[in-house]
Structure formats: C-alpha cells, structure tokens
TrEMBL record:
Biological process according to GO: mitochondrial DNA metabolic process; mitochondrial translational elongation
Gene3D superfamilies: P-loop containing nucleotide triphosphate hydrolases (3.40.50.300)
Residues annotated as domain Helicase ATP-binding: 1-136
Organism lineage: Eukaryota, Discoba, Euglenozoa, Euglenida, Spirocuta
Originating organism: Eutreptiella gymnastica
InterPro entries given in the database record: Helicase/UvrB_N, Helicase_ATP-bd, Helicase_Restrict-Modif_Enz, P-loop_NTPase
Record-level Gene Ontology MF annotations: ATP binding; double-stranded DNA helicase activity; forked DNA-dependent helicase activity; hydrolase activity; Y-form DNA binding
SUPFAM superfamilies, alphabetized: P-loop containing nucleoside triphosphate hydrolases (SSF52540)
Annotated protein name in UniProt: Helicase ATP-binding domain-containing protein
Cellular component terms (Gene Ontology): mitochondrial matrix
PROSITE patterns: HELICASE_ATP_BIND_1
Amino acid sequence: AILDRLLGEAAGPGRTPRACVLQHRVELAVQNQRTFERLHPGRSTAVFNADRKSWDGDVVFAMVPTLGRSPNLSTLPVLDALIIDEAHHCCAATYRRIIDAARERNPRLKVLGLTATANRGDGKGLRPIFSNVCDQILVRELV
C-alpha cells in the first residue's frame, strides 16, 4: 500500500510510474523482486545487475555495485521513485552517486529508505538523503 501510494503520487495522474529498488546483495534483490511480483502481479519488473541490465520494467531491481559504475549509471532513466533497501548504507559514495544522478534527472524524485539499522556505527546521519522519518520502532518496543 505504501509503495502504491508513493508511486501514484510520484508519477501523477494518468502516467505509469517508474521506480528503482536499490539493494547491495543478490539475495535481497531476488527476495524483493519475488515479493513485489507476488503483491503486484499487474506491474512489470526488470533487473539491473552484472548479468542483465534492463530498464524495461515499471519497477527495476538494481544492484548498487553494478549501477554505481559510470558506464552503467549513464543509462539511468528518469525515475519517479527510488526505494533503497538497507538504507543505512546510502551514505557510501556509490549510493550517493546513484541518488544524485536520479535526482539530477528528476528533481521531484521521491526517495524512500528502509532499514533496521537507522543509527549507523560511524555516527553519520541519513539527513542529507532523507528529509524525515515516517516511522521508527525501537528495539526496546519489540522486546
């Protein structure tokens, strides 16, 4: 429901939204794509990784190490939404290159970060990338 709303708001009425889901591990990409396809059978998906580099889907599941390379990053289309799994990694240079390139192509880009590790060990904050936190559950609340 959150993704549907995000994509709908990002694209505007009457337009099919384009989104990219970033992850840094193959296992996460496969899991994310399978879950998305099960929940959204009407939306097309594609994969951007070392083996396949396709932007043909409404939602593309991209590997950060592959997309972050200059020749690959130059193929990045205009996106309506960028979803970052394990968003605590987004302070790294490769993530920043991807985020900056996506924002350059669409200044109205919606960026959603998901993480279970909001407080980084190195103390770097996520504010340069994300303007707010929509929900947070602390460990003590789960125990």
